[in-house]
Amino acid sequence: MAVEIPKFTRIEGRLNKITLSGTTKVYWQSFIYPATYQFKIGQRDLVFSTGTSDRDSAPFLAEGDQVAVAVLDGASDNNDPRMVYGLYSLEDECGYVAHYRWMNVKSKNAATRIAPNSEFKYIGAVSALLGVSFAIDYALARPLLWPEAAWPIASVAAVWLLCTTLLLIKRWRWKVFHRPTRRQRIVEEIYRCLDLGSPHCPDKKVQSV
């Protein structure tokens, strides 16, 4: 039985009563600072939770911007602002798809935490972090005799191999074998709703936020 994927509605219009709230809290998994936009399009209250690697980065949305947004079909609970999964701005002709907001969220309707085609960036970050650990372990292991000296070094190598393998399996399963996970299929629906093309080869400029 096929897994049912949520459908998205496209809403177009100009941003009205926009506010931006940030925080000094950082998602240590990816060193991302959360930034939340709240605004209206027509009579609809919307919220777009994003992330930035620079706490002092300039906002990419402004009052009066002409945009299209992707939101889940149906009304929100308790008349809360509807959550925006992705946005296309006609001002800079760029799409913005939310990924980092899902870092600490468990939901059947969540998108991927890692943006498409960014796996190697994370592999590089993991490699750098484990490289430091490897250097520390090597320094501590030098006075030890073999095979005791091999254990701390081998443990770091095993963690690196595990993390890299998991990231590449997810990438290959989606891009090469066309067997996306539920979250990856949700990302595909967001791109389709905003006419951005394929997540792996978008037709327009796209930023992960």
Automatic annotation (TrEMBL):
User: What is the name listed in the Swiss-Prot or TrEMBL entry for this protein?
Assistant: Uncharacterized protein
Residues annotated as transmembrane: 122-143, 149-169
Sorted UniProt keywords:
Membrane, Transmembrane, Transmembrane helix
Does the keyword field hold Transmembrane helix?
A: yes
